[in-house]
TrEMBL record:
Organism phylogeny: Bacteria, Bacillati, Bacillota, Clostridia, Lachnospirales
Organism, as annotated: Candidatus Acetatifactor stercoripullorum
Database matches in InterPro entries: DNA-bd_dom_put_sf, MerR-type_HTH_dom, MerR_fam
CDD domains: HTH_TipAL-Mta (cd01106)
HTH merR-type domain residues: 11-80
Example GO molecular function: DNA-binding transcription factor activity
Cited SUPFAM superfamilies: Putative DNA-binding domain (SSF46955)
Coiled-coil region list: 88-122
Designated name of the protein: MerR family transcriptional regulator
SMART domains: HTH_MERR (SM00422)
Keywords (A to Z) from UniProt: Coiled coil, DNA-binding
Amino acid sequence: MAKYAAIPQGYMTVGEAAKKMGVTVRTLQYYDKEGLLSPSAESSGGRRLYTDKDFVKLHQILSLKSLGFSLEDIKKRLISLDTPADVAEALTKQADEIRCKIEQLSETLTAIEQLKAEVLQMQSVDFKKYADIIVNLQMKNEFYYLLKWFDTETLDYIRSRFDKESGLDFLERFQRLSNGLLQLEKDGIPPESEECQQLTGTYWSLILEFTGGDMSLLPKLMEIGSSIKNEPGGQSQITGAYLESALHIYFSKLGVNPFDGVSQNED
């Protein structure tokens, strides 16, 4: 570090630098001690002297710190500023980090707004259910909004039967089947067609997989099916009368009616 008898032009004392950089003198002293930002020079009287280059380097440090990086991480990410290419590289990396943080914050904000909407629709305070919704939002499960319609007993059943991996796998298969049935309906394929009946059989197998063969769960599933008709976008996954007709034909061919004795409230 160069030493000067007086403060030459282009240099600042630690107090002047702190004021210009919008930090405290203590912060600059701490960064010097930690090896993050040492002053460019020192006066003969031992006063630390800073330059505009130090200001740019501090901008790197503060930018990375605002993104949640530890001081050790920042040390590893700092780039020398000796050439225009160095400065450009430093700014490019800062911009990339900021864009990443913006994306993360945007996802967090979306999740908060979605949870808020679900909370306002629920009729009581239920933190366990809130936690389930948050987990499903983090999993990017597009069916997260269904959770508010399940009672505590049914949710406990789901928690005991599915973990995160198996739950996502089940939902992905359910979505593919729902989309397939919707497409058949849009294409005008009749419910009694072989193609539709094959998908309907697989769909019913998923229902049995979900319930474990416990038909006492069917009324709750039917109730949820009715409730989500009022959900924004809910109909995109529900085939309505088309699926009901396809299931009726499917069960008629099997000679069984699993809905015997099952009642459902009318809308």
